[in-house]
Amino acid sequence: MLAAARALADSNRLRVVAVLMEHDELCVCQITALLGLATATVSRHMAILHDARLLESRKAGRWVFYRLSGAISPALREWLRDSLHHSEGVETDRATVQRILSCDPRTLCTCFKPRERRGYPVTGDSSDTGPERKEDR
User: Fold this and answer.
1) Under a CB-based contact definition with an 8 Å cutoff, are residues 49 and 4 in contact?
2) I need a labelling partner for 21 at 20 to 30 A (CA). Which of 10, 31, 35, 111 fits?
3) Fold of the domain spanning 2-111
4) How far apart are CA 60 and CA 29, in angstroms?
5) Residue 34 and residue 59: Cα distance in Å, rounded?
6) What does the domain layout of the chain look like in residue ranges?
7) Tens digits of per-residue pLDDT, 55-111?
8) Distance from C-alpha of 13 to C-alpha of 11, rounded to nearest angstrom
9) Residue 111 CA neighbour count, 13 Å, CB half
10) Contact 49, 55 (CB under 8 A)
11) CA proximity to 42, closest of 105, 111, 106, 122
12) CA dihedral for 10, 11, 16, 19, sign (positive or negative)
């Protein structure tokens, strides 16, 4: 439980958990677009959440998808839901995620342009054919 508390103490990791409470799973490229951070930084955040048993992951080729862990206690889920439901930041992230989900994950870096951080543009490699979207199935 202490590892979960430490993991949730970071606002970016809390944002990821809040978004995943409303979506079955997201690929790391979608989470990176949401947070507007470097891919390596997002991967580190995801590893911390995974190590705290808050997230589960699956790989599909080069793509990694994350979802909330089934090991999260109902009490923690309820506390998170109640605490985050009316947060202004969560409302903003909901709108951002909807824009991100409207993009094909294979071309997310060209479709969705998050704000630049520290003056460095966000770039990515879209040469991989990527995962299927639910709409493509």
Assistant:
1) no
2) 111
3) Arc Repressor Mutant, subunit A (1.10.10)
4) 13
5) 20
6) 2-111
7) 999 999 888 999 999 999 999 999 999 988 778 888 899 999 999 998 887 777 666
8) 5
9) 18
10) yes
11) 122
12) positive
